[in-house]
Every structure is written in C-alpha cells, then in structure tokens.
Amino acid sequence: MSAVLPWQQSQWDNLLSRIAQDNLPHALLLTGRRGVGKQRLALQLAARLLCTEEQPEPCGQCKGCRLILAGTHPDLKVIQPLEDKSVISVDQIRELSHYLSLTALCGGYQVVLISPADAMNVNAANSLLKTLEEPPANTLLLLMSDRPSALTATIRSRCQVINFAKPAHDSALTWLKNQQPELDAQVANTVLELADGAPLRAAEMVAQGALDQRTEMLDDLEQIVAGRCDPIEIAKKWLKLGKKESLYWVYGWLVDMVRMKVADQPPYIANADVAPRLSKMAATIALPLLYKRLDQVSEALRLADNQSINAGLLLEGVLIGWTPRC
Length: 326
Ligand SMILES: [Zn+2]
Prior knowledge:
It contains 15 helices and 5 strands. It has 326 residues and is α/β, with parallel strands linked by helices. It has 2 domains: 158 residues, Rossmann fold (3-Layer(aba) Sandwich), CATH 3.40.50.300; 112 residues, Up-down Bundle (Zinc Finger, Delta Prime, domain 3), CATH 1.20.272. Strand 2, helix 4 and strand 3 form a beta-alpha-beta unit. The longest helix has 20 residues. Bound molecules: zinc ion. Zinc ion (ZN) binds next to helix 3. Zinc ion binds next to helix 3.
C-alpha cells in the first residue's frame, strides 16, 4: 500500500478514528481539484476496510490487500464511465444496486468507488439516490468529484463531504521532487503551477512528457509569430497533442507575458525556465492585444469540452491570431 499523502494526513487520521468508533457514514463525497489524490485516499480507505489484519493502516500483505492492489477484490466495485463514454449510465447504477443486494463475499464491508461522480447522468443520479437513502448495512459509497457543483443537491446532501484543499506549496513541491528526483527545482515549481497546485497531476504531466511537448509547442508558436509556418498546419499537429493541453500551455504563456508587461520584475513567472523566450515574444505584442488573446484562449478552453465544436477550428482560430499579418 502506498503511504498516505502528507496533505491528507489529518483527514486520514479522522477516518481511522471514525472506523475505530464504528462511526463511519455510509456515503462520503471526496472533493478537490483534479490530481489532489482523491482516488488514492478512497483506495486507501477501501483497503483499510477490506484488510483482514487488525492494525490502523492497511497491511498491504493480506489476501484483502493483495486483491485490492491487483484490482480484483470482489467486495470493491469501481464505477466509472465505460471506455469511449463520458457518462456513467443508469444501467451501471442499476447493476450496482443488484451488486449491493448480495452479501459481501469476504464477509465484511462492500466498498463502492464512483469516479467521477459528476459523470452520472440524471437517470443514473436518480437511481443512486435510492441506494443513498436506504443503504445496505456494511456498505461504504465513495463518490469523487472535481466539480461537486455539477452534482444534484439531493446527491450532495446525502453524503458527508471531505474536501481536499490545494496542498501547501512546500509540501506539494517536496512530494513532487521525491517522486521525480531528476526534475530541476525550478521546473518542478513550474509544473506544479501549471497543474494548478495538484501534485499528482503534476507528476502525471511530467511522466507524460508534458515539458518536452511544451518546448516543442513554444517552438511552433515562435515560428508562427515569425511568419515562418502555417498556423493551420500547426493546429492540426497540436490537435494530436491534445486540444486542452495545447490551449492550456498557450494560456499559461499569455498569463506570464501579461505579468512581464505590467511589472519590470514580476514577482512570479510560471514558465520561468522559458522566460527569456516569452519576454522576447511579449516585447512584440501590445498589452491590450495580449489581453484580447487571453480572452480568446479562455473562451476556447471553455468550448473545448463541447463535443459539437470542431476542435481543429478552435485551435486554428487561436493560432491564426498570432500570424504577422493579423
Ligand atoms: Zn491487509
């Protein structure tokens, strides 16, 4: 079992004492930004309940723990959108009701993870309400959401909420550097900022080569600004790299460029390792135009989740604005 994340220790201790007092609610809603470790804590809690050893932390060795680590414990059910789907359907929740009507195979708790809970469509959420109102004994439902406001009030009101705030910067940075010892301190800081302070998200970005991708994209943008390449071709390339990731990088650069424009020595720059390149670009763009582009990228980011919008055109729209003729 992995160790409890340092910024979740107090919530974890609280859960352990509630287990010791036999005072665990039947439904918890874990909230907090993406990459703060909600899923990890949920699995840790599931392991605590399904571990057969009598000790505060899950042992990681017993049959229960080993089945959890293998993802095959019969009394742990994980509900998430099916492959290629973005919603959790009513059929998945109906199947869950049936599952919970059966006795736990190992004779203890039945634990259910629903992630992300806000992916349930209206019918699925309504169907889950019945289970939340009359939960079978020895059942724990763990709902997770980055966007709890997207859940219905009736669902929220039937769960006890545990919110994970943004971890303290130093704690997050220390954890990230332990995970990625080869990462330069300044770059670690940058990635953490770009991950909105969420350490697990930052580690995932590094593992996925996000920094190399960012450098390549900055090269592309410089080429567009210099009039040396076609923004439409670059939009096609960026689409393959990920529309939201691409837009997010541009957004971050623009925010840094605005910081450079409004202060001679800005107290903070997220992309500090490429600051000279951003500064050079910022020198060619007037502040009102930077704000205009920032608005444009924000709007594109807002539209990026909308499946009916052509993502290629969205990126083209953003990049064409950077060509010298515009
Ligand atoms: Zn165990």
